[in-house]
Amino acid sequence: MEIDQTMPKPEIAPPTGKLGVMTVGMGAVATTFIAGVELLRRGAAPAVGSLTQLGTIRLGKRTEGRSPRIKDFLPLAGLDRLVFGGWDIFPDSAYEAAQKAGVLDGPHQARVKRFLQGIRPMKAAFQQDYVRRLDGPHVKKAKNKFELAEQLRQDIRAFRRKSGASRLVMIWCASTEIFLKPHKVHQTVESFERAMKQNHPAIAPSMLYAWAAMREGVPFANGAPNLTVDIPAIQQLAQENGVPIAGKDFKTGQTLMKTIIAPGLKARMIGVNGWFSTNILGNRDGEVLDDPASFKTKEESKLGSLEYIFQPHLYEQLYNGIYHKVRINYYPPRRDNKEGWDNIDIFGWLGYPMQIKVDFLCRDSILAAPLALDLVLFLDLAQRAGMRGIQEWLSFYFKSPMCAPKLYPEHDLFIQLMKLKNTLRWMKGETLITHLGREYYD
Ligand SMILES: NC(=O)c1ccc[n+]([C@@H]2O[C@H](COP(=O)([O-])OP(=O)(O)OC[C@H]3O[C@@H](n4cnc5c(N)ncnc54)[C@H](O)[C@@H]3O)[C@@H](O)[C@H]2O)c1
Question: How far apart are CA 77 and CA 71, in angstroms?
Fold first, then answer.
């Protein structure tokens, strides 16, 4: 949403009671997130990478010296109030899943073993047609997709009851589905629900979770590049039921680097001829993305950022016809420790060519887990503040940010951060910061 200083600030309900976090998928990202929250609660590790936990926000003029922590400025749910549940196609507890994912080291795993053993996924809504490299036994059965989604609604209610949570948030941390295009059955709630009953192929499992979340009034974040909440039917339900939604595809490794470097090059009017990005990745996500149909979904999500940041229609001499290529190669020995290489062919004054090479040896889920935490806390805040539908101010977290149909998505990380912080200021009735600063000199 665009924030206008004149819009009245929202009333924010206090975060009383527990916040139930439902992860769709309990793989590498979800278990690293859940285990991480428990380690933070025990004071065993710092919350590195999390804006809600470590970030500050400047308020008022620079001379006022007011920069509280974001978590002290806003009524966010405390980490001690989070309870976890979710679904997976494997029945493993979160502990077994974390062991298999192999992201956390032995001592960290041991410290939260009991806690993770207590979290068991519910049976998933899954169909292999949508994730071809994956199959598992822990799946629901039903006559049609509508009934499957109704079962998910029952799960949500049962989790709410059992966990004693007063509010819930759902976050998609499951696999990337095959590439799907918007279809006419996605247009309205009526056509969508009819299509569910007819087992229409345009309705992917991820949409069933999103539909169930909307019907139950549960905010939804989409950590994968799937279409899921990018369709009018789900967005209409989000509006009608007062539910915030955000997506899509966590912005973590290579795309994070891209949206840090590209705005800098553009700020200095440095030209770019080509940007070649390749990765090796050996976790289950890498295996799923080895299927061309799932990779296509990821590729679309990864390719958009440069086009929008460089605006070649405005800067023809600098960015017209950039050759942009992205590759992901499944390479099991590296497991979750992805290596991403970028070769950037740039040019400067008088057109002289130069090159930049980036070799990012990252840990995929270590980068994604704090984003999951922030998204859960911010979506809960948004709902308590009566903010419904697409939460564009959370673009900061996504490779392929959602926005209103008439807008283009904002990919520049620094504009995204400014938008996020101004939204927080607006929520508390603080002056938005424009960085004009004339008043210090007049
Ligand atoms: N780690 C990152 O940096 C990063 C960044 C951006 C996006 N993502 C996306 O986040 C998602 C999770 O990544 P990961 O590394 O944890 O993958 P993962 O394979 O370790 O975990 C995904 C889990 O989802 C389960 N699953 C698949 N379909 C399901 C369904 N319909 N219902 C319930 N469970 C289902 C799988 O069994 C698996 O356990 C992927 O889509 C990935 O592309 C990750």
Answer: 9
Same domain for 409 and 340: no
Same domain, 48 and 184: yes
Please give, one letter per residue, the 3-state secondary structure of 275-313. Answer: EEEEEEECCHHHHHHCCHHHHHHHHHHHHHHHHHHHCCC
Measured by CA distance, the residue closest to atom 31 of ligand 1 is 126
157 C-alpha to center of ligand 1: Å? 23
- Edge-to-edge strand list for the sheet holding 271-281: 323-330, 271-281, 339-347, 353-361
Counting ligand 1 atoms within 8 A of each CB, the residue from 89, 285, 289 with the most, and so the one to mutate, is 285
Query: Shortest CA distance to 134 belongs to which of 205, 80, 34?
Result: 205
pLDDT tens for 191-226 read 999 999 999 999 999 999 999 999 999 999 999 999
Q: Evaluate: CB of 279 within 6 angstroms of ligand 1.
A: no
**Per-residue model confidence as pLDDT tens digits over 54-64:** 999 999 999 99
**119-139 tens-digit pLDDT:** 999 999 999 999 988 899 999
Q: Tell me, yes or no, whether 4 lies in a domain.
A: no
How far away, in angstroms, is 92 Cα from ligand 1 center?
15
176 CA distance to ligand 1 centroid (A)?
7
**Which of 282, 359, 357, 274 is closest to 318 using CA atoms?**
274
For the cut 70, the answer to whether the pLDDT of residue 1 exceeds it is no
Is 440 within the bounds of a domain? no
Q: What is the pLDDT of residue 57?
A: 97
The whole domain housing 269 covers: 254-361
Q: Is the CB of 285 under 6 A from ligand 1?
A: yes
Q: Is the CB of 126 under 6 A from ligand 1?
A: yes
Phi-psi domain of 356 (left: phi exceeds 0; alpha: psi -120 through 50; beta: other): beta
255 or 91, higher pLDDT: 91
Q: Is 297's C-beta closer than 6 angstroms to any atom of ligand 1?
A: no
Residue nearest to atom 5 of ligand 1 (CA): 250
The answer to whether 88 and 25 are in contact (CB under 8 A) is yes
Within the chain, what is the greatest distance between any pair of CA atoms?
72
